[in-house]
Amino acid sequence: MVTEIDEEKNDVNSICPICGGPVKRGCIYGSDRNALRWLAGEPSLLKNIRAGAGGGEIIGESPLLSGSHIKGIRCETCKRIIIET
Hints:
The chain is mainly beta.
């Protein structure tokens, strides 16, 4: 479990809850000004079209100057990303 984050140093004073490896704080960025969207299930062309048309659940933020993004941590060992909601 992530317990404390030092944003200045980009450090998380914890370990990956999946494999126990070291983690770093960061963001996943979208390619445009639209919000990132969650659609359950496997990826598909239809779901990509639905998300582009405003379907799905909005996740993350879409501020004007920093673009669509969602914050999280990424394990340096197993490469998994855990997002903050």
